[in-house]
Amino acid sequence: MTAFAPSDAPRRTRSFWWRVLMQPAGAIACAIIVLLLAAAGLADLLAPHDPTRMAAGRPLTPPSLAYPMGTDELGRDVLSRIMYGARLTLRIGAIAVGISLVLGLTVGLLAAYLRGWLEALLMRSVDVLFSFTETLIALAFVAVLGPSLTNAMIAVGVAGIPFYARTAYASALSERSKPWFEGAVAAGAGPGRLLFLHLLPNVMPTMIVVATLGLSNAILAAAALSFLGLGAQPPQPEWGFMLSAGRDFFSRAPWLMLFPGLAIALTVLAFNLAGDALREAMDPRSLLREDAR
Amino acid sequence: MTVLDIRNLAVAFGATPVVHGVDLSIARGEALALVGESGSGKSITAMALMGLLPARASMTADAMELEGQDLRGLSDAALRRLRGPQMGMIFQEPMTSLTPVLTIGRQMTEALRVHFGLSGEAARARAIDMLDRVEISRPADRLRQYPHEFSGGMRQRVMIAMTMALEPRLLIADEPTTALDVTVQAQILDLMRTLVRETGTSLLLITHDMGVVAQMADRVTVMRHGRLVETEAAAPLFAAPRQDYTRILLNSVPRLDAPLRPAPQPTPPVLGFRDISRSFAGRGLLRRSEPVRALDGVTLDIARGETLALVGESGSGKSTLGRIGTRLDLEHDGRVEIDGIDITGLRGRALRKLRSRVQVVFQDPLASLDPRFTVGRTLGEPLRIHQGLAGECLRTRAADLLAQVGLPSSALGRLPHEFSGGQRQRIAIARALAVDPAVIVADEPTSALDVSVQSKVLDLMEDLQRERGLAYLFVTHDLAVVRRIAHRVAVMRRGRIVEMGPVSAVLDDARHPYTQALLAAAPVADPTRARRPPAPMPHTPDKPLSLVSDGHWVAA
Amino acid sequence: MTTLPRLRLCLAGALALGTALPAAAQDNEIVWARYGDIDTLDPHRATSTLSLQVWSLIYDTLMATDESGAPVPNLATSYEVSEDGTEYTFTLAEGVTCHDGTPLDAQDVKYTVDRAFDDAEPSVTQSSWGPVTSAEVIDPLTVKLTLGSPFVALIPFLADSFSSIICDSNAEAEGFGSSVAIGSGPWKLESWTRGDRISLAAFDDYVNHGKLSANPGRPYMDRLTIVTVPEAQARLAGLRTGEIHVAEPPLDDVSALQSGDEIDIVVAENTGQNVFWEFANRAPFDDVRLRQAVAHATDVDTALMLIYGDLSIPEQCPISRGVFGNDQEFCAQHRPQYDPERARELLAEAGYGPSNPLETNLLVWTGGKRDRLAEVFQAQLAEVGINAQIEMMDIGTMNARVRQENEREDGKASMDMMTWSWYDPDILYALWHTPGAYRGFTSPELDAMLEKTRVTSGDARDAAVRDVMAYLLENAIHVPLYTPGWEWVFAIRSEVEGFKVAPFVYPIFSDVRIGD
Amino acid sequence: MMARYLIRRLLMGVTTIFVTTIAVTLLIHLVPGDPVQIMYAQSQGTTPEQLEAIRDRLGLNDPLPLQYLSFLGRLLEGDLGQTIRGQQPVLELLLERLPNTLALAGAAMVLAVAIGLPIGFLAAYRRGSWVDSTLMIAAIAGVSVPHFWLGLVLMFVFAVNLGWLPVAGTGPANLILPAITLGLSNAAIVARMTRSSMIDVMSQDFVRTAHAKGLPKAMILNAHVMRAGLVPIVTMMGLQFTYMMGGAIVVENIFAWNGIGRLAIDAIFQRDYPLIQGFILVFATTVVIVSLLIDLAYALLDPRIRRSA
C-alpha cells in the first residue's frame, strides 16, 4: 500500500534562499546590495558631509582621509554625494522596474489568460513596441516629456514594458497550458481566482528573476540618460550625471569620473549577479540535481 | 561466448549511490532485457557501460568487459572508438534524438567515415542499404531530408539503421518504443528482432514494459532501487518468478485475457455527446493550411456507474473529446448534454456552477497540481467555490477526501513536489471528488505511473466508482488497461469512432480491422504466446457506425 | 520622385567615412574646433553664435565694428540719414565680388533686405532690422532703406552678421543654406558635412573694406576647416597633438595652459554678452522685494571665482561692456549688491523665512559650465531661504519656456539665468518694451523711457539709456550677473600668428599665418 | 512555408513602421509647449499673427487625421520636413548620417561576435571548470560596466593621454575606439548568451546520440552543437544589433561620431521636433529592416523553416 511517508524532501523556501546564498555570485551580490541599501538608507547618518553643500572642502581635493573620494570642483564631498546617489539610483531602479513589471505583467497575464483577439491585439502591439527597441522608446519619452530624472525613470520604465510583457506572457501561457490550470478551471475557479491565485504566483518567480536583472538594466539606462543630460538635473548627486560632470576634470581630478563609474558598475554587477543566482536557484535542472540526492 | 560481462557495478552521483552491486552478462546473439520501474537505475547502468555518465557521476566495477576488452580505465578516446562499432545505442525519444539541422544522410554517414574510414560514396551506399533494410522507401531521396520530415516511427527506424550500420557487437536499446503508438511499436520491435537475428548482434533491451520483455528477451534482469533483484531466462521468469518483487511486477501488469468487470445496471446517461466535431485551424495571418479535423461527428453516452474507455493512438481525438466533455474546450460543433440537458451554450457563472458535475484527472500527476498550492488549498478550492465551505469545516472535509484516497490528513500542509507520482494522482482524484461529481474524465491517468502503482490507482478508482456510482470517461491507449477498468469501450481513429460496445464484445470479437490491428500489436506479457507479425494497417475509408450485436457498433 | 538623389546622398555619406580628421593639418590649412555645429548657412534662419561666427567669415556686411564695438563703414563706404531719421542711403564700395564671380551691388542688398522681410518666410531676426518698409536700388552702388519710424539701432545692426549681405545669385542656387552659401566674405564655402565639419577656402578676390583685420585682401592661409568636437578635453588633446589649431579649451585647464608655452590663450573683449536674472512676471515675483532679495543674495564675485577663475568678470549693467551706454559705476549705484542680511529682511517682510522658504524654479541653459555656476547660486540662495530647483535646458527651449512662464496666470515661482548678446542698447527695448520678447515685466513709464532710446542720439541717447538701466536695476527686473557669457576663450597653438577676435565674439582668420 | 514565414515577418515590419508613423504624428501634439513658439523663440517680437501664419503653413491647425495623411503623403515623396534649427531637410540630414551609425554598430557587432562567440563556446565546452568561471565572471563584469564610462576612459587614455588615436571626428581611425567601447560590453552579452545557448544544445538528446555513435568530441561540437546552436545565436544577433543601434546613440555622443544618435540627442535638447520625428522613423525603419534580414538568415539556417514539411 502506498503509505504516506513524511517527505524527506527539503523545505522549499529555506533551501531556496540557501541555494541563492550558497553560490558565490549570490553571496557577492547580497553583500553589495546590503552595502548599497545601507549607504542609501543611512546616508543621513553616515555621510560625512552634506552632498550639496559647496566648499565642504577645497575644490578638487584628491582622495584623503578627510575626503575618502576627494571633492569636486565646487568643493563638495564626493563620498557623500555617492552615498546620497545610491538612494537616487535605487529609487530610479525600483520605480522604473516597478512600472515595467506592473504594466508588463498586466498586459502579459491578460493576453495569456484572455486568448482570442484581445490576446492577438495586445501581443502584436507588444511586438511592435519591442521592435522599437528600449532606447528609442526611452528617448521618445524624454523627447516628449522633457529632460528630468522623473521623466527618465518613467521613460526607462515604459521602455521595459514590452520585454516584461513578453516574458510574463510566455510564462503565463506555458503555465495556463499545464493540466493544473485546467484542473483549477474544472474545479470552478473564476477569472479572478485563476489570474491572481493561480497564474500570478506561478509567473512571479520568472518575473522576479527578470526584474532583478531588469534593475541593473534600468539603472544603467537611467544613468546613460543622465549622462547625456536627459535625466538628473543639478544638484542631484545622480551617478551618471556626476560622471558626466567629472569628465571635464579628467586630467586634473580623475577621481571625479572614477568613483561614480565604479559605483554604477558595482551596483549593476550586484543586480546582475543576484539575477543570475536567483535564476540558477530556480533552474529546474538544479532542482533536479537537488532531488536526485 | 560472452560479449558483455559486468560484475559488481556501482555508480554514484556525488555521495549518493544510484546503482550498486549489479552483475550483467550477455552472450553472443543473446537478448537480455533489463527491467525495472522508474528510479531502478537501469538507464544509468547502460550509460555507465557506454561511458556516457554525466561528469558528476563516479563508477566502480569488479569487472566490465566487452568482447574481452576491459572498459574500466579506458581513455575517453579509446572508449569513443568502441562506441559505434562495438556498442551502439538507441534512445527513447525519436523526436529529439536526431540533430534537427543536419540531413539524415550526413548523420548516417559520419560515423561510418569516422570509424571505418569509408569514402563519401561508400558510406552513402551503406546508408542507403541500411535504410532499405529498415524498410524506408526511396532511401536515396530520404538521405537528403531532415529529421523533421519524418514521423516518429520513421525516425526510430532511421536511428536503428544508423546504429546497426556500424554492425555493433552489442546493441543497447533504452526504451526504444515507449514513445510510439502500439502499432508502430510492434513494427519497430519486429524490425529489431529481425536485424539482431540477421547480424548476430547481442541486445541489451532496457524497458519497463513486461509485454515488450516477453516478446523480445531471451533472459531477463530485474532491477529495483539501483539493485539487482534477479536474473533468469525469460520463460521460467514469467511462468514462476522467484522473487516477490518480480511477482508483484508481473501481477500488476494488466492482461488482455483478464476477467471482465461485470456490467453495471443500465441507467440513463449522465454525460452525452451529440455529433461532436472539432477542427484546429492552421495558424498564421495568411491562412493557407487546411484546418485539422480532430473530431468528426462523434456521438456517445456514459451512464451512471459506468466506465467508458476511449481507446486510440495519438491524434485519434480521444483526448479532445475528453476536454470537450469537461468543458475545457468550448470551440466545437455538436451538443454536450448532462443528465439529458443541453449544456453546450453555458458560459461564465452558469458554466462554473455546472463544473461540479464533470471533473477531470490528468495524465501527468506532477503537472496536474498547482505547484504553489498546498494540498489543503488544492482540495479546498472547489469546496470553497461550490459549497462555500471555510475554516475548520473546510479542513475537515479536505482531510476526509484525503482519507478516501488513502492519504493521511498530515498531507494537507504539503506541496505537490513532496509527494510521489502515485500520491499526486491520488490527490488529483481527491480534488475531482471534492465537488461530488457525476462524471470523471480521466485522461490517461495511469500512463505516467509505474505498473505497480498503476494497479493501485486503478483499484482506487474502481472502489470509488462502486461507492459513489461515479461514471468514468477513461481515455487510454492501452487495451489491457481497458479490459481491467472499463465496462464499455469506444475505439477511435482520426476523429471518428470505428467500433464501440461492451468490452467483451469489442476486445474478444473485434470486427473493425483497426481494432483488430490494435489488438494484434498490443504486447502481451507472456513469452510463450506466438509472436504475430504486425498486420499492415488497413486504410479503408470509415463508414457510419452500424449495430452488429447487442450494443456493439462497428463502422463497416 | 527624389529617390535617386537621396540614394546618392546616402552613398556620399558612406564615402564621407573615408575622410578622416587629418592627423596633422595640411600645409596652409588652419583647423578650428568648436563644441557644436552651425544650424544653417542661411543668415536668416538661425540665431546661434556658432552660426554667426561662420557667417561672418563667408559673408560681408554693410557696416563693421572697430575694436570698441562701434560701427564703422565696410561694404558701405558711407551712408546718409534723412532729417526725420526714416531714410538711410548707403553708398557701396566698388569692385566687390561675390564668390561666384558676380559683382556685389545694390541689387544684392535689396535682395537681402527683401528676403529678411519675406511674408511667407521672414528672417527669424526680422524685428531686429527695425521698422524697415522698403529697400530701393538708386543706382548699382547706391541703395536706400526706408523706415516706418526712426530707428537708431539700424546702423549697429548692419555691422552684425545677422545682416550679412546675401548675393542674389543664391536665389537660383539649389540648396542655399544647406550646401550653398554665396557671399563676399574672405572665405568661400567648399563643403559642409553637417555635424562634422565646414571646409572653407580663401577667396582670392576678397578686399577688406572695414573689417577688423590688418590684411587688406585675401587671407594668408588657403584653407580654413571648422570641425565639431563636443568634448572639451578632446579639443584640448587635439590642440596638443596639432590636429587642431584653434579651439575653445576646457575652462578648468585655462590657467594651466596660460603658464605653459605650447598653447596661447586669447580672451575676447567686448563680447556684448550679458548674463542676468529675470523673473516670471506673476506671483510671487511680481513683488519687487523678492526680486531684490534674490539680487542681494547673489554673490557673483565668489561664484565666478569658483567656476571661471578670473576669466569672467561681474557685470553691473543690463548691457555689457563695449555696448553704447555701459557705465559700471553708474550701474553699481542702482543694482542691489550682495547683502544676504538685507535679502533675509526683504524675504521676511514678504512673509518668507527659514520655516517657509520661497520655492522657485531656476531655468538655466546648457553649456559653458552654467550648470555648475547655477549650482553655486542655488547654494547661495539656499543660504537666505530660497529653494531654487535648477532646470537645465537648451537655449531655444528656455526662450520658449520663459515666455510660457510669463504668460501663465499662476504656478510655482520661476526665475531664470537669461543670457543675451547685442551690440546696442536697443536690446533693452526688445526685452522690456510692451509686449516684451518674453512677455515679461512691462510698464507704461518704462515703455516711454525705452521709446526715447530709439529716437535720440549722442548724449541724449546716453541719458535715456541710463534712465532705463536705473529703472531696471532698482526694480530688480533685469539683474546683471556677469560678462562675457559663452565661447569667449580661445586656445591657440603658439605657432599660429595673427589670430584675433573682433567685438561680439567674431574670430578673424584673415591675418592668420602658421609660423615655425 | 518559408515564403509564408517571411511574408509574416514582412507584414509585421510594415505594421511597425505604420504604427511608428502614427506615433510620430501624435508625438508633436503630446509635447508641452508650442513648437512654433520654440522655433521663433530667439527672434524678439515675432507677432502672434506671424506665428499663426507659420502654424498654418506647417499644417498644425488642420484636424489630426488630415495632418497624418499629409504627413504620409510627404513621407512617400521622401519629405520629412525641415529642422526647426536652421531649417535643414530632415530626411537628407538623417540619411547623410545613417551610414555612420550603421558602420559603428556594424563594426561593434563584428567585434562583439568575434570576441563573444569563441568565449561563449569555450565556457560552454568547459562548463563548470575554472576556465568557465573566469570567463563568465569577466563577462558579467563586462555587462555591468557602463559603456559611457568605458568609452570615456578609453578616450582619455588612448586618445587624450597617449595620443595614439584621433580624439574625435568621423573616419576609419576614429571608428576604432567607439567600436571597441560598444563592442566590448556587447561581447560580454554575446558570450553569456552563446554559453547558455550552447549548454542548452549540449544537453539535447541528439548530442547524446552523436556521442553514442562514437564521434570525436570536436566533430560533435562543430557539426552538431554549433550548427544547432547557431539558430538561436543568429536570432540573438538580431536583437544584439538593435542593442548596438541603441548603444550607438550614447557612444556617438562621447566620441563625436557623426551618426544619427548624436543628431538625435542634439535634437532632443533643441526640441527640434521634426528632426526627432524623423529620427524615430528612420531608426525604427532601420531596425525593422535589419531584423528582417536576420529573420531571413534564420530561415535559411533552420531546415525546419527552410524546407516545407
UniProtKB/TrEMBL annotation, chain A:
It holds the Pfam family OppC_N. Keywords: Cell membrane, Membrane, Transmembrane, Transmembrane helix, Transport. Belongs to the binding-protein-dependent transport system permease family. It is a multi-pass membrane protein. The keyword Isomerase does not apply. It is found in: Cell membrane. GO terms for cellular component: plasma membrane. Signal peptide: none annotated. This is ABC transporter permease. Residues 86-275 form the ABC transmembrane type-1 domain. PANTHER family: OLIGOPEPTIDE TRANSPORT SYSTEM PERMEASE PROTEIN APPC, PEPTIDE ABC TRANSPORTER PERMEASE PROTEIN. It comes from the Bacteria. GO terms for biological process: transmembrane transport. InterPro entries: BP-dependent_transpt_permease, MetI-like, MetI-like_sf, OppC_N. The chain crosses the membrane at residues 20-43, 92-114, 181-200, 206-232, 253-274.
Automatic annotation (TrEMBL), chain B:
PANTHER family: DIPEPTIDE TRANSPORT ATP-BINDING PROTEIN DPPD, OLIGOPEPTIDE TRANSPORT ATP-BINDING PROTEIN APPD. Belongs to the ABC transporter superfamily. The lineage of its organism: Bacteria, Pseudomonadati, Pseudomonadota, Alphaproteobacteria, Rhodobacterales. The keyword Metal-binding does not apply. GO terms for biological process: peptide transport; transmembrane transport. NCBIfam families: PRK10419.1, PRK11308.1. Gene3D superfamilies: P-loop containing nucleotide triphosphate hydrolases. SMART domains: AAA. GO terms for molecular function: ATP binding; ATP hydrolysis activity. InterPro entries: AAA+_ATPase, ABC_Ni/Peptide_Import, ABC_transporter-like_ATP-bd, ABC_transporter-like_CS, Oligopep_ABC_C, P-loop_NTPase. The keyword Magnesium does not apply. Residues 4-250, 271-519 form the ABC transporter domain. This is ABC transporter ATP-binding protein. Keywords: ATP-binding, Cell membrane, Membrane, Nucleotide-binding, Transport. One of its GO terms (cellular component) is plasma membrane. It is found in: Cell inner membrane. It holds the Pfam family oligo_HPY.
From TrEMBL, chain C:
One of its GO terms (biological process) is peptide transport. Residues 71-433 form the Solute-binding protein family domain. The keyword Transferase does not apply. GO terms for molecular function: peptide transmembrane transporter activity. Residues 1-25 form the signal peptide. Pfam families: SBP_bac_5. Transmembrane segments: none annotated. GO terms for cellular component: ATP-binding cassette (ABC) transporter complex; outer membrane-bounded periplasmic space. It is found in: Periplasm. It comes from the Bacteria. Keywords: Signal, Transport. InterPro entries: Peptide/Ni-bd, SBP_5, SBP_5_dom. Belongs to the bacterial solute-binding protein 5 family. This is ABC transporter substrate-binding protein.
